[in-house]
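Notes, p. 3: input format for complexes.
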Amino acid sequence: MPELPEVEIVRQSLNKKIKQKKVKKVIVRNKNLRIKIPKNFENFLKNKEIKGVKRYSKYLILYLPNNEYCLIHLGMSGTIHLLENHKKNYLTNASFYKSFFLPNKHNHVEIIFEGLKLVYNDPRRFGFFQIIRSKKLLKKKFDKLGPEPFQLKFNGEYIYSYFKKKKKNIKNFLLDQKFVSGIGNIYASEILFLCSINPVKKAFLLSREDCKKIELNSRKVLNYAIKKGGSSIRDFKNISGLKGNFQKNFQVYSREGLSCKRQKCSGVIKKKIISNRSTFFCNSCQK
Ligand SMILES: [Zn+2]
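Output follows (287 residues plus zinc ion):
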């Protein structure tokens, strides 16, 4: 599943390629995504200039003129491919997630610009496109989501006061989009390792100092993943087509049974299923 770092990489690619470009034509081949593509979608986008591409949590936001927007969510398996005219044998994927090149099947939406087109591919069809017609409605859309780790609002004090009297474990909170949006399962394990906090620890037992560590390490882990080009376990490959080494950069994720990477720690990485999600942690240094 694409997580925040992958979505941020897609945003950067899109912003570079389609900002200030005018939509010439839209082709919808399959309307039945998680949310049905609106009836007037093709006409809505046609002749509009893309003012910029932003992101909130895992939503991509195409900024259009007159405070209108098009939201794109990649769901479980969505990828965006950018195909430039007269260019052959180059990578089309706007991220490192899944296939480098445009697959033959499941290309549901095409947005065509001068000399370039954007193709939305999604085998499982959990992604979606949405039209938002005002700034107010855009804000409302994200009202229920907690702050992103990059926002100032996500700080030690916020975390500490949020956790008061909360008996759920910390791992669950890192995946709770009302508390913080966009962390995702892989990164939650990595963050807790850096904080030396056991994933099953009840949130209310965390100290102010622990909460400060969660603030700083959440930012650190996501920034690092963005810098490394996003990650996805099975599908990550680097730009030259060789198998990427991002997995080697994980401290705990998918390292079950291996020894802890922390200096002077003789612990072993364990795997535990918490709320149906795999969680990895060191049995010695995470208390
Ligand atoms: Zn350890």
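The helical segments are 4-18, 41-45, 135-141, 156-163, 170-174, 185-195, 208-227.
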